[in-house]
Design goal:
Elements: H1 3-60, H2 63-72
């Protein structure tokens, strides 16, 4: 085998190896991009769920609701001589 044939063969092998590397790299990029999209959808779903939970929490903790539950479920009443601190 001549030196020229050996160089051409080596360049051909390197070219094929490079092409395989490019294909593998592109495939990995596609997989990672798909995974990123899935994670973004999950993030958006969780953000929506968190906002709904915060709304529900504020509704359950409203002073009017707490007062109503105290009266109806716990039988609590407000004393007649009730004085708010600072109004004395």
């Amino acid at each position: 085998m001549s030196r020229r044939t050996l160089i051409i063969t080596a360049l051909l092998v390197l070219n094929i190896a490079s092409a395989i590397g490019v294909v593998e790299s592109k495939q990995k990029t596609r997989e990672l991009f798909h995974q990123l999209q899935v994670e973004r959808v999950t993030r958006d779903r969780l953000a929506t769920e968190w906002a709904q939970i915060q709304l529900e929490d504020s509704a359950w903790a409203s002073p009017d609701r707490v007062s109503q539950v105290a009266r109806t479920r716990l039988g609590m009443i407000q004393p007649r001589d009730y004085v708010v601190l600072g109004d004395q």
